[in-house]
Write a structure and sequence with these properties.
This protein is α/β, with parallel strands linked by helices. It has helices at residues 16-25, 88-92, 94-104, 145-157, and strands at 2-10, 38-47, 50-59, 78-84, 109-115, 134-136. It has a single domain, classed as Rossmann fold, CATH 3.40.50. The radius of gyration is 15 Å and the shape is globular.
Length: 158
């Protein structure tokens, strides 16, 4: 069995933990619990003819005062960068998070989750420009959650 370390990276309260719970347990909970440090979940998936164990690292969210420690990034094969598409500051922070990850893992693969798509309406917010490789996701209704993880797993295993 092949093991791959995936990081979920983003600002606080963007839905990283909820995306993992939806993917691993097919569950969603509206109650917000702050992640402190890191929590690791596992999921076995089939990629092509291989069995791959995904080690999914749920890393505490970044704030203006507190950046994500880059020592968490070591040994990662890939990352999903998560923003809350209803909070523009979290969308704007994506490029900095991606840059920090690629400094440690220049060959790392990644995807971008524009999360909380179920709450987004263009009329109530500024339109969000989705970058290439980005997915509109919702941990609440499951939108694109399986897709973003499976696409990243395929890229990491290629």
């Amino acid at each position: 069995m092949i093991r791959k370390k995936i990081l979920l990276i983003g600002d606080f309260a963007v839905g990283k933990t909820s995306l993992i719970r939806r993917y691993v347990d097919n569950a969603f909970d509206d109650n917000y619990l702050t992640t402190i440090g890191v929590k690791i979940s596992k999921k076995n998936v089939a990629v092509e003819d291989d069995s791959v164990e995904l080690l999914i690292w749920d890393i505490e969210g970044a704030t203006v005062e507190k950046r994500i420690p880059t020592n968490y990034f070591k040994g990662a094969s890939g990352a999903i960068f998560v923003c809350d598409m209803n909070r523009t500051e979290t969308v704007e922070a994506l490029s900095e998070h991606i840059e920090s990850f690629l400094e440690v893992n220049p060959k790392g693969k990644y995807k971008v989750a524009y999360n909380k798509a179920d709450l987004y309406t263009a009329s109530q917010s500024e339109p969000v420009e989705v970058m290439a490789g980005g997915y509109l996701t919702s941990a609440k209704d499951g939108r694109n959650v399986e897709t973003i993880f499976s696409e990243l797993a395929k890229e990491m295993s290629a």
